[in-house]
Design goal:
The protein is of the alpha+beta class and about 160 residues long. The chain has one domain: Roll (PH-domain like). About 30% of the residues lie in helices and about 35% in strands. A four-stranded antiparallel sheet has the order 1-2-3-4. It has a four-stranded mixed sheet with strand order 7-6-5-8. Strand 5 and strand 6 form a beta hairpin. The longest helix is centred in the N-terminal third of the chain and has 27 residues. The C terminus is likely disordered. Keywords: Membrane, Transmembrane, Transmembrane helix.
């Protein structure tokens, strides 16, 4: 017996809302899943930010978190004397509230990759298992805005 979709007509009045509900469910699951896997939820337990942060903002930026989960082109960073602010753009924010991480909780380790590309991995005092790696150019902008208020890790892994 051959079954054809034409044998089960679906009204457009049901198909469109059904697709929208399905799409919203998948979007929500993906956002919550990325936040859980990346460690963003752990960061939010300690560093959740309420309200808007003052200071220069760098939008549409990328960072890699725990287990190589990358938020590509959807982050906004803010640097001021209080600390480093990190926020995911609104459509992807489910499970990933904005963060404000005090400078005294941040340690940075710099690495040079092939062709002189610099990467900086930040680790956070209250969530040591959740690193964040960004490009050296972005870190240079943080430094231009607030100096270098974080701890620098030596090659041996100690802070200076």
């Amino acid at each position: 017996m051959h079954v054809c979709l034409a044998d089960f007509p679906i009204s457009p009045w049901l198909a469109v809302p059904g697709f929208l509900v399905f799409f919203a469910a998948v979007w929500s699951l993906a956002s919550w899943g990325a936040a859980a896997i990346s460690g963003w939820g752990l960061l939010a337990q300690h560093y959740r930010c309420e309200g808007d942060l003052a200071g220069p903002k760098w939008r549409w930026r990328t960072a890699k978190f725990r287990w190589t989960v990358a938020y590509s082109g959807c982050l906004t960073f803010t640097a001021n004397q209080q600390g480093l602010g990190i926020a995911v753009m609104a459509p992807l924010r489910l499970g990933a509230p904005p963060l404000l991480i005090p400078w005294q909780d941040i340690t940075a380790r710099r690495r040079r990759l092939l062709l002189g590309i610099e990467r900086v991995t930040f680790s956070f005092a209250k969530t040591p298992g959740v690193p964040m790696t960004v490009g050296g150019g972005l870190v240079g902008r943080f430094e231009a805005a607030v100096g270098r208020p974080w701890n620098e890790a030596s090659r041996a892994g100690t802070t200076a």
